[in-house]
Amino acid sequence: MATRIKIDQVEPAGYRAILGLEKFIESTPLTKTHKDLIKIRASQINGCAFCIDMHTKEARTAGETEQRIYALNAWRDTQFFTKEERAILALTEEVTLIGNHVKDETYQDALEALGESYLAQAILAIITINAWNRIGITTQLIPA
Hints:
With 144 residues, the protein is an all-alpha fold. The chain contains eight helices and no strands. It has helices at 7-10, 12-27, 32-46, 49-61, 66-71, 83-96, 104-114, 116-138. The chain is globular and about 40 Å long.
């Protein structure tokens, strides 16, 4: 498998626009842990090997445990994640699989756990990693 076009070179303005959203997410109060969980879980669902590789490495460097990373795809069956993290993970899954829509219960749980502003930031973070996943998968980015 070879990498296809390089979006950042072929359409630099479009790439910079997505990068701008990423920079906004980095400037928000979303914790590093929450951002990492969003990025890893969405990337697992989408099957983006490049992003899974990148974001699990970043999470480990930031102090995330191997146990939680390995259990992320079965988070509902563990006690490793906080109420807020569970709300974020449920929301991440439903936004990523948007064809099934976001259930009212999932949204309300996230709103109660996170508050309105933090929820908005989490939604934007989920949308952003999904955009990156689609770039990575479509252009066949390969982990080093």
